[in-house]
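Example with several molecule types.
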Amino acid sequence: MAEESKKTESKTSEQEISEDVKELVIARLEVLSPDKKFSIGSNEKEFTRDELIESVKNEDEIGQKVIDLELTFLRALKDGTLLKEILTPEE
Amino acid sequence: MAGSMLITRPENDDATIYLSKWSENIIKEAKNKGLKVIDLWRNKANRERVIGILGKVNPRFVMFNGHGSENCVRGHNMEIIIEEGDGKEFDSKIIFSRSCKSAKILGQTTITEGAIAYLGYKEDFWFKYNPKKVFRPLEDKTAELFLEPSNYLGIALLKGHTTGLSNNKSKGHFRKNMEKLLIEGPLAEDYDCIRYLYWDMIHQVCLGNQDAVL
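Resulting structure tokens for the full complex:
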């Protein structure tokens, strides 16, 4: 019973994190220009800012890609990798 | 520089039109260096022609533009022009594939089967562009942030740099663009592009021989 309760708690926590992440990513997308478009990977279709936001909300394949990219960038910003990369002298 | 180069330039959507137009600078550089350029443009960017030229002309440098996945690269109208299992066609060749994810599996396979080096992207290649410039992609300053550094990989190879150094020099151009946007600050029109430039840069790889030259 205690085990089950622990599992439920953990699941709720993961869902909350996921919602937090979605909100964060959407907030970061909302400041983008609505007039420009994105080419992403193997998709023939190009995407506007609002379509990316919709994809994140729906957690579809494109939405997952957007979240992955945003989290990669934020992690690099947080742990200093981004600055280190930018300051790497050219060979 | 003697020899030949094969380049594919499908044009069936905005993304491929941009890649195709931006490749014109690479073709110009190749011709300046004395290479014979076999330019498979639009509907010529098909599997039959690519496989035929790889076998008959045997170009040392091959550049693909277009959509891709972990195990294939596509040509005009999304036809698969190269896929896993075609590795032997790339024996003794240097390949630069400006297509998404193909370095992940296809690139590794081509190296195992005899290619000298495979330069490309292990994840999706992102770029942002201004739809008002779609008929003049070379004037699109937003797209230039992405396509100039990527182009420089091909240009550096043609200038005679090694495969590894060409990859690093290209990454240097991505860095310069990120630095420029950071200095311009959050009010700059394309400030948000930093995150997409960072993504493209960290996923651009050179597999195989790092010291090979064209």
